[in-house]
Amino acid sequence: MIYIGLDDTDVLESRGTGHLAREIAAALQSDYTVLGVTRHQLLVDPRVPCTKNNSCAAIHVAVEDTRVVGDNGADVPNGTLDALFERIRALMLADFQPGSDPGLCVAVAPHPAIGEYGRRAQREIVTQDEARALAAEHDIALAGLGGDEDGVIGALSAVGLAASGSDGRYVLVGRSREIGGLQPVSAVLATGIDAVQTMDGQPVTEGLVQTDKLRPARRDRRPILVVEWDGACWQPLKLD
Question: Which candidate, 70, 193, 198, 211, has a CA 20 to 30 Å from the CA of 144?
Answer without folding.
Answer: 70
